[in-house]
Amino acid sequence: MIDFKLNFSADSESIPYTPSAAFLQLPFYLNVWGYFKAKAGYFTRREGQEDFLLINTIDGNGFLEYRGQRCTLYKNDIFFIDCRELQYYGTGPEGYWEFQWMHFAGSGCRPYFDLINGSGLNIVHLDDSSEITDVMSDIRNTISGTDFQADIKLSMLIMRIMTCLAIRSQKLYAGQYQHYTEIINNAVDYMRNHYDQPLGLSDIASAVHLSPFHFSRIFKGHTSTSPHEYLIRYRIDRSKRLLRDTDMSINEIALAVGFTNANNYIRDFKKLVGTTPSKFRRFWVE
Fold first, then answer.
1. Neighbours of 41 (CB within 10 A)
2. CA–CA gap between residue 243 and residue 239 (Å, rounded)
3. What is the pTM of this model?
4. What H or E segment, with its residue span, contains residue 52?
5. Percent of the chain with pLDDT over 70
6. Using an 8 Å Cβ cutoff, are 73 and 97 in contact?
């Protein structure tokens, strides 16, 4: 579904780009790049498009309705949304909205989308978005030339923008839980000192004198991972040292780092590392 009204100045641009099929597995690939000086009445309402959209407001103001929220967009505001979901955006009350935009896709979009937006919508405001504006201009110059390495360069440029937005977003999320820093550090110390023992969420929460629900919420808000995920990753890291430096069996290592049995250890190791403990050990020994 799409509905729109186009009303922008003559020097606005919309440049489609078709990536080579060989590069569709890259983390990011570009579909369209654009620069609009939108006038009063401009809007787009869309749902069901199989890519993602980023808009960087340069001047004036616009609006965005997405995931049940309505936001006014000001200079240096940037949003990144999944176009499969219903979105409605357009020129704001000033009647002028200057912005750069691009539609893109790739395997890296979903993880960055989740990092930036969480379960809702996050408008990222930068005190100075000139770096993003410059990279967006580099993207335009890349697709306008005859560079046969353009697809690789475009993926790298989009990655720069995504990384900048994700870091900014995570700082904002962590800032909400800043007063819990000491509690989080104490919980991490407790997990690292007791990783080789049976540990549940209630054990860790009790060690820092919080309820399991409250502790889990602030830990994830501060670290972007759950306590269980952090503990499993730490156990896997400790097991890698034993695989590399000792002759202990897989079963002995599993128990030594806190897993209840070798099957669970092998399953989690393969999920996180991409190979089995035995194959990992052969890689380092041979």
1. 11
2. 6
3. 0.68
4. strand 52-60
5. 95
6. yes
